[in-house]
Design brief:
The protein is built from 16 helices and 16 strands. By secondary structure, the chain is an alpha+beta fold. It has three domains: 13-167 and 227-316, BirA Bifunctional Protein, domain 2, CATH 3.30.930; 171-213, no CATH class; 326-414, 3-Layer(aba) Sandwich (Rossmann fold). α13 (338-350) links the parallel β12 (328-332) and β13. 36% of the residues are buried. The mean pLDDT is 96. The structure holds histidyl-adenosine monophosphate. Histidyl-adenosine monophosphate binds next to β6, β10, β11 and α12.
Length: 415
């Protein structure tokens, strides 16, 4: 038997209701904040992600689904959306059409990671990118949107962590300081972290190795080496969050796994999903548009993992989905009338009434069981003596009341 590829998941009808509900929460919050949807292709030229996310990142170095197509172009299934959104922004001159663009998306993403609970190879993100303003108010807006959606899903066990990565210049200075600090401690670090000293030193803060954590605990903090503008913006973000009564923690080791960040970064963590606890992450990327060939344009955004959020919802029992229901189930009492029952259902359906009939020639009892399973509001007993006079018995399933009704009046009665 051929099975779905490891790290991918079918979303079956049982759970699709949760997804639809989730998507409704997402789109309604984005509407309130005046974001417009953007959709980009599933695959892009590999160089977009290599340049956008950074050659030295885990995503680009180890996790991308990259292959040569038949015309020998190297293409990659998108591992995240920011680079694609920025590419589309530049390609279609969105910045020229209007100075400020607020965009959101819901899309599958692909990363060849080791699958485990909350970590998939095909997963779904929703997220937002706002391009054209460097205002810290927008950074707060991103945190707010993500927080509103998570709360809209009924989640309570949430922690917001924020940090600032400053400008590339302040980061360069800090990198020197960190290198100096690690000079005589290199032999205490894991092989992976030793390797990162040259390639991507900040990411050592992300290491899960016990010894690395111990060493990095005493490391100088980037926040103490920020340039004055980044520091001012960070202070403003904190003070607005406080005034909005949004709880947050400053986490000086929150470095994020993508190279494009400048200034604010944030994550929202759940206490209910085990080791893959980051439900969402984001931050400002004021240099990315320029790096990808556009006019200098500041940007900020975030993305959230939908499977992880649904897992957190399940673990917190955070929402209950209404059972879906149909308006009318037509129980056919006489198999010779199957085609008439079908035509009758079609008339109702063309009048926007959800109607179902039996396609399996089941007994009346089995058809009633089916009607109950589908949560039918009404059942119509189609056939018998009544049918000869163009009538039928109509049963209201909630009250149990049953009446004889002309088939011509059914639509008006139930709509
Ligand atoms: P990211 O932190 O790589 O950021 O991903 C955002 C979220 O996607 C994570 O917090 C997690 O919930 C989910 N996620 C990531 N990888 C997986 C996986 N393998 N399986 C399941 N869920 C996963 C970004 O992607 C940036 N583009 C966010 C951003 C937008 N920054 C600025 N704008």
């Amino acid at each position: 038997m051929i099975k779905a590829i490891k790290g991918t998941k079918d979303i079956l009808p049982d759970s699709i209701r949760n997804w639809k509900y989730f998507e409704d929460v997402i789109t309604s919050v984005f509407k309130i904040y005046n974001y417009e949807e953007i959709r980009t292709p599933i695959f892009e030229e590999t160089s977009l992600f290599a340049r956008g996310i950074g050659e030295a990142t885990d995503i680009v170095g180890k996790e991308m689904y990259t292959f040569e197509d038949r015309s020998k172009t190297s293409v990659t299934l998108k591992p995240e959306m920011t680079a694609s959104v920025v590419r589309a922004f530049i390609e279609h001159y969105l910045g020229k059409r209007q100075p400020f663009n607020k965009l959101y998306y819901i899309s599958p993403m692909f990363r060849q990671e080791r699958p485990q609970a909350g970590r998939l190879r095909e997963f779904h993100q929703f997220g937002a990118e706002a391009l054209g303003s460097g205002s810290p108010l927008l950074d707060v807006e991103m945190i707010n949107i993500a927080y509103d959606i998570l709360k809209g899903m009924g989640l309570k066990d949430l922690t917001i962590k924020i940090n600032s990565l400053g400008t590339p210049d302040s980061r360069k200075n800090y990198t020197k300081v960190l290198k100096d600090f690690l000079k005589d401690k290199e032999n205490l670090l894991s092989t992976e972290s030793k390797d990162r000293i040259k390639k991507n030193i900040l990411r050592i803060f992300d290491s899960k190795h016990k010894n690395d954590i111990k060493v990095m605990k005493n490391a100088p903090k980037l926040l103490d080496y920020l340039d004055s503008e980044s520091l001012e913006d960070f202070e403003q973000v904190k003070s607005i969050l406080k005034s909005l009564k949004i709880p947050f923690e400053v986490d000086a080791s929150l470095v994020r796994g993508l190279d494009y960040y400048t200034k604010l970064t944030f994550e929202i963590i759940s206490g209910k999903v085990g080791s893959q606890s980051a439900l969402c992450g984001g931050g400002r990327y004021d240099l990315l548009v320029e790096q990808l060939g556009g006019e200098p344009t500041p940007g900020t955004g975030f993305a959230a993992g939908m499977e992880r959020i649904l897992m957190a919802c399940e673990n917190e029992k955070s929402f209950e989905i209404q059972q879906s229901s149909i308006k009318l189930y037509i129980v056919c009492l006489d198999k010779n009338l199957n085609a008439n029952a079908f035509s009758f259902a079609q008339t109702l359906r063309s009048n926007n009434i959800s109607a179902e009939i039996d396609y399996l020639n089941r007994s009346v009892k089995a058809q009633m069981r089916d009607a109950n399973k589908l949560n039918a509001e009404y059942v119509l007993f189609f056939g018998g003596e009544e049918y000869k006079a163009n009538n039928a018995q109509l049963k209201n399933m909630a009250s149990g009341e049953q009446e004889i009704i002309s088939l011509d009046n059914v639509l008006n009665k139930i709509k």
